[in-house]
Amino acid sequence: MMDVAANLDTISSNIKQSCSKNNRNPEEITIIGVTKYVTIERTEETIQAGISNLGENRLEGFLEKYNYFGKRAKWHFIGTLQSRKVKEIVDKVDVIHSLDRLSLAKEIDKRTEQPMECFIQVNVSGEASKHGLHPDDVQRFVEDLAPYSNIRVVGLMTMAPHIDDEQRLRRIFRELVTLRDSIRDQKITYAPCNYLSMGMSNDYQVAIEEGATHIRIGSKLVGSKG
Ligand SMILES: *Cc1c(COP(=O)(O)O)cnc(C)c1O
């Protein structure tokens, strides 16, 4: 398995290349190292390589890593979150990428001491296996969040299917961009919605070319096991 620093070098130069196509500044891109597949040791190596944003998709995996590393990293919860589990993570995670229903918003709002940064997860591709709101329901959902003053909508998140069809990937990412623009342009106090969490190992370069601000990379950065 390649070391994380070497993988990061490759990813960083790919990011630069994708940014240069659209005159974007690579500093606009936050790399979230997804450590769900790997051990504490490998996660330590990831932090040593300079990755300070880490992502976990399951409660147990997150708590294991958090209990060890604590605030040495900024923690992104990127997986499906059951409402009854919110109280176990709400004072530990920094950002939730999977807000997709009001019952979850209500629970986060109730449990958190300070406003929680959230991405609304949108199922753009329409795959039944993917979580997230239908694109047509996002506007209404944002409006319905108004009473929950501890929810701050920082952006939109999507997962594209694992495919090589670049044109289809671009269409999916563009739809999220359009939706983000329409929410952002309303200048809603609790929903600045500046960010786009899209792009994983398979498609982060395309996602950046289309405007991603947060890419979530597991296998190509830390590896997929061990
Ligand atoms: C696992 C996971 C990733 C990272 O996947 P890779 O393809 O290994 O980069 C990104 N986002 C979410 C929501 C995930 O569950």
UniProtKB/TrEMBL annotation:
Keywords: Pyridoxal phosphate. It comes from the Bacteria. The modification N6-(pyridoxal phosphate)lysine is found at residue 36. Residues 7-224 form the Alanine racemase N-terminal domain. Pfam families: Ala_racemase_N (PF01168). The keyword Nucleotide-binding does not apply. InterPro entries: Ala_racemase_N, PLP-binding_barrel, PyrdxlP_homeostasis. GO terms for molecular function: pyridoxal phosphate binding. Its cofactor is pyridoxal 5'-phosphate. SUPFAM superfamilies: PLP-binding barrel (SSF51419). NCBIfam families: YggS family pyridoxal phosphate-dependent enzyme. Belongs to the pyridoxal phosphate-binding protein YggS/PROSC family. Pyridoxal 5'-phosphate (PLP)-binding protein, which is involved in PLP homeostasis. This is Pyridoxal phosphate homeostasis protein.
